[in-house]
Specification:
mainly alpha, three-stranded antiparallel sheet, 18 helices, about 5% strand
Length: about 425
């Protein structure tokens, strides 16, 4: 049987090299690499030096690339991204295949951050802030009003630090790691002291303590709890803020801009600010001496109880369990620990929910002389390391791959112009 003659509407649509590269989100040289690997066919332009490509072939390859890099999960159609950083399963989580709780309880925050970035353990790792970036970041933060939230302070400090770094647009791994090791201590150094002199030397947790607690001379157990909290919170897969960071990195924003994107997301009460709500709830229970009336007031007002349950952990949040164990070694934390237990037991009468890390953070902040917003600061400083790990990973992927398609649900066009 003879093949039918193609109708005029069947004639293939051809794309230039530039058009094919734009559709695929790659450089023109990569288009020809696809041809050499047999993934695309090309046709020389008659009388010219360039080539053209079958539009349907290019579009099919673009769809295939998107499926391989960014897809949908089998449950709920949620966005999923391949990553080698964090795995969460069976009420446990792992950093590059290693139990995250064990890492956080045996190593410092700086060491865990290095592991997350490089896959190598570097004992004794320390981060040093350049004096020039600290000076600029402090001036920027000091200019903000007193009621500015932690995310405001850190976002302004991040932007200020970026202006002092002429190499910020270098997205090579070495350059980004250099940014990470200086940006995090700069953020801590830029924060105002909590009533006494700033500490600008020693482990990062010790420096951060002087920005959060009114207790001037912390005991070793309290410092260890803060350091572990930072390490436990360093990453948690594709949380909302981390996704924002990866979108920014996909567009090839530099590391400071990517971190700023993450800081812009954590202010929500369902993310980084959740520990502050748990702190206030815990303080109310401590003031009244009983969780029952406090829980009743929350429910009567139609509010969810903060610090309880987590969608990724059907059972207990392993971060909360680890932090509670460390807090039990701090004598002054006992009242807050008992109040937290009262909250869980009271709420369990109608909803069997376990404590999550926000409630554990609230116990730390409430018992160590910290403001309700301190948990948000701890979360943001800790997660900055994870954000940079994800940005590094995204820089190695095809640019602009984080581009989902919108499902238009508005009026069918064309509509008349409004009068």
């Amino acid at each position: 049987m003879r093949d039918r003659e193609p109708a005029p509407q069947d004639a293939e649509r051809r794309l230039s090299t530039k058009e094919a590269a734009e559709l695929l989100g790659v450089k023109p040289e990569t288009v020809y690499a696809y041809v050499s690997r047999g993934q695309l066919s090309s046709r020389r332009v008659s009388g010219g030096r360039g080539s053209t490509f079958d539009a349907s072939e290019v579009e099919a390859l673009a769809r295939r690339n998107r499926r391989e890099s960014v897809g949908t999960s089998g449950s709920g159609g949620e966005l999923s991204v391949r990553t080698r950083i964090t795995l969460i399963e069976s009420d446990r989580y792992f950093f590059r295949g290693v139990d995250a709780v064990e890492l956080a309880t045996r190593h410092t925050y700086e060491e865990v951050a290095e592991w997350l970035w490089t896959g190598r353990m570097l004992p004794g790792s320390t981060f040093t802030a350049p004096s020039a970036s600290v000076a600029v970041a402090r001036r920027a933060v000091d200019a903000l009003p007193e009621h500015a939230a932690p995310a405001d302070l850190l976002r302004v400090a991040t932007i200020a630090a970026a202006t002092t770094d002429p190499l910020r647009f270098d997205l090579s791994e070495g350059a980004v790691l250099g940014t990470a090791r200086t940006l995090i201590p700069t953020l801590v150094a830029a924060l105002p002291p909590a009533g006494h002199r700033r500490r600008d030397e020693g482990p990062l947790a010790h420096r951060l303590w002087s920005r959060l607690s009114v207790h001037k001379d912390p005991d070793e157990a309290s410092l260890r709890a803060l350091d572990a909290a930072l390490a436990l919170l360093v990453d948690h897969d594709l949380a909302a803020s981390t996704l924002a960071v990866r979108v920014a990195a996909s567009a090839r924003a530099h590391a400071y801009a990517a971190v700023s994107a993450g800081l812009g997301v954590i202010e929500g009460p369902l993310h980084g600010a959740a520990s502050g709500l748990a702190h206030r709830l815990l303080q109310d229970v401590l003031d009244q001496g009983d969780a029952a009336p406090v829980i009743a007031d929350e429910l009567r007002a139609g509010r969810r109880i903060p610090g309880l349950g987590h969608r990724l952990y059907p059972g207990e949040d392993p971060r909360a369990r680890a932090l509670f164990a460390l807090l039990e070694q701090i004598p002054r934390a006992e009242p807050a620990l008992l109040a937290a237990r009262d909250i869980v037991e009271t709420t369990a009468r109608h909803a069997p929910l376990h404590a999550n890390v926000d409630l554990a953070l609230a116990v730390l902040t409430a018992s160590c002389g910290m403001a309700p917003s301190a948990g948000e600061t701890i979360f943001a400083v800790a997660r900055t390391a994870g954000w940079i790990a994800h940005a590094l990973e995204e820089y190695g992927e095809r640019p602009l791959r984080m581009r989902p398609s919108g499902l238009y649900a508005g009026p069918k066009p064309p509509q008349p112009l409004p009068e």
